[in-house]
Amino acid sequence: MIIAHISDTHLALDAPDAERRMRDFASTIAEINALDPAADVIVHTGDIVHNGHPEEYAQASALLAKARAPVYVLPGNKDNRANLRAAFSARGYLAAVSEFIDYAVEDYPVRLIALDTLKQGRNRGEFRPEQVRHLIELIDAEPGRPIAVFTHHPPFEVTVGPDRFHFETMDGMARLRDALQRRARVIAVFSGHVHRAAAGLIGRIPASVVPCIATTLRKGEYSPPMKTRPVYHLHRYDPAWGFATESRIVRTDSSAPDERKIVSAPAASLADG
Ligand SMILES: [Fe+2]
Prior knowledge:
Bound molecules: fe (ii) ion
Strand content: 15-25%
Distance between the termini: 30 Å
Number of helices: 5
Structural class: alpha/beta
Oligomer: single chain
C-alpha cells in the first residue's frame, strides 16, 4: 500500500505568489499521477487554502479532481470547516457526524484515521475532550488492521524551528497523545503544519511531518535548484516492516531527471535545513 502525503498548499487568490502556489500544487499532483507503481491514496493534511474562502476551495478542488488516486483531506489552521466541507462533500467521507472533521477510511490494508485539530482563528491546534470518545470509537470499530493517523498539527515536540509545540494547550496535545496510545493499533502518525520535515514519537508510535507543498512558504534552507521544487512524502506499508517513508522532490521543467528522488528512512531530516 502506498500513501502519497501532501500538506500546506495554502492556495490564495490574492497573494503575490498565488500563481506559484497553484503551480506547486498542480505539479505535485501531476507527479503523483505519474508514479509507477501508482499511489493507492492521497492524503492532504490541511492548510489546503490560506484564507478559508470558497473561491480558494474551488481552485483546490479543481486541482485535486485531476488526481488519479482517491484524495482525502482534513482541515488545518488556515482552513474553514464549513467551506472545506462544502467543497469536498461530493465523495461522502466528510458527512457531518459532529462539529469536527474526524473520520476513518476503511478501503485499504491499513485503516486511515483523519483528525481535526483546527481551533478556528488560532494558529495552534486543539483536540477537544469530546473528540477523544469519537477517536476511540473509530479505533475500536475494526480491531483487525493497523491504523495510520493523519493530523494537521503534529502531536509531538518538534525540535527544529522556533516553535516546539503546536497545540494551544499541553492538555489538548496530551489528550490526543493519550488517545492514540490507548489501543496498540495506531502504527504511525503523519502531520503537516510545520512547513519543514520533522520526526518524533508518541509513546512508541513513530510520527513525522511532511514539508509544505507551497515552496514560497517552506522553512529551512534549500539550494537554488531546489527552491521551486515541492517536496512530499510517500508512505509505503509492508505488513512485516510497517511504514517506510520516502521524500519525493517534484520535478519542474528545469530539473534534471536524476535529481528527482532522494530516499530517507526515517522520514525526518530530509529537505530540512
Ligand atoms: Fe498550519
